[in-house]
Amino acid sequence: MHKNENVTEIRKTVVLNAPIEKAWKAVSTSEGIAAWWMPNTFEPVLGHEFILHAGPFGDSPCTVTELDPPHRLGFDWGKDWHLAFELKKLEENKTEFTLIHSGWDAEKVTEFGQPHLVVRGIMDGGWESIIKEKLPKHIEA
């Protein structure tokens, strides 16, 4: 039996031209998250269970597991994944935002029967445009 290889988390970092409070609002409210990512029933409450409406992939159940305003928010997504949003104030109107998508496992498949490694490749590209284009566009609008 070969040992289980944990697959590297996805990390995306971007510098936003916005104060940390404004950036936090965009990543820690239901309306904010919907504006740059996907519709949801999120509430910034520890233990809150919510749904991400992932279009063709249906509804994903999530649970808020970390809440440290305005610096970090984390939630479990679906059966295996964890997402964390980290914010760091750089100067008055600049905030560094990092997305960390973990829980990848070479041995596992998603709810939809796709190998984690395949989905990770697709999501890595997806997050690239969401975090580096959609989020800044929404926040800086």
Main beta-sheet strand count, sense and barrel state? 6 strands, antiparallel
Strand fraction equals 25-35%
Coarse structural class:
alpha+beta
Report the mean per-residue pLDDT as an integer. Answer: 94
| Rg of Cα set | 15 Å
**Helical stretch tally:** 3
Low-confidence blocks of residues: none
As a percent range, the share of helical residues equals 25-40%
Shape: globular
Sketch the topology as an H/E string, one letter per element.
EHHEEEEEH
Across the major sheet, the strand order is 1-6-5-4-3-2
Distance between the termini: 53 Å
Number of strands: 6
Overview of this protein structure:
The protein has 141 residues and is an alpha+beta fold. Helices cover 28% and strands 34% of the residues. The chain is globular and about 45 Å long.
What are its keywords?
34% strand; six-stranded antiparallel β-sheet; 6 strands; globular; 3 helices; 141 residues; alpha+beta; single chain
